[in-house]
Amino acid sequence: MIFATNNQNKIKELQNIFQNQKIQSLKDAHINIDIEETGKSFYENALIKAKTVYEITNIPTIADDSGLIFEELIDWPGIYTNRIENEAKEERLTRNEYLLKKGKELHNKSIKAICNLVYYDGKQIISSEGVLEGTITEKEYPGNGFGFDSIFRLLDGRVLSALTLEEKNKISHRYQASLKLKEKLKKAGILN
User: Fold this and answer.
1) What is the value of pTM for the model shown?
2) Residues taking part in catalysis
3) Is the preceding omega at residue 142 within 30 degrees of 0, hence cis?
4) What residue ranges do the domains of the chain occupy?
């Protein structure tokens, strides 16, 4: 199976859950492609990626799309989480600094991390979603993890970047989506 990413952190997370299944990254499969995410939802973007990679390789593919949502801003940045780099650069900020600045402007600090995973094998489309709820921190907390882990406070008060990989993998939005997808793939007879 191919996981349509070159992010080694995402590969490690997924491999941790799909323990008996060999998961290849795009790099492992010798695919160098930049897939345009033109969907209007996390699901649509993940499906675009899964289908694109499958059409190149004829190998069953899992793709994800994930991001952060500020409750007060409805669906922002949502599917544009990775694409707000340009807005951040205009203000000479990193993406996380930019998100923190936005968070400071809001009364409601509630955020959600959402991950959609889509499996595609040329015939079947199987999808799952994971959601992790928390609040935006007041500053960045460097530590473990990647992406927005350093600015994501869990409802129990801990910051995601303070968790070990094992702790994070038991609660993250990608972990939740991966577990659900694994169960659906078992029910479909794709995994043992």
Assistant:
1) 0.90
2) 65
3) no
4) 2-187
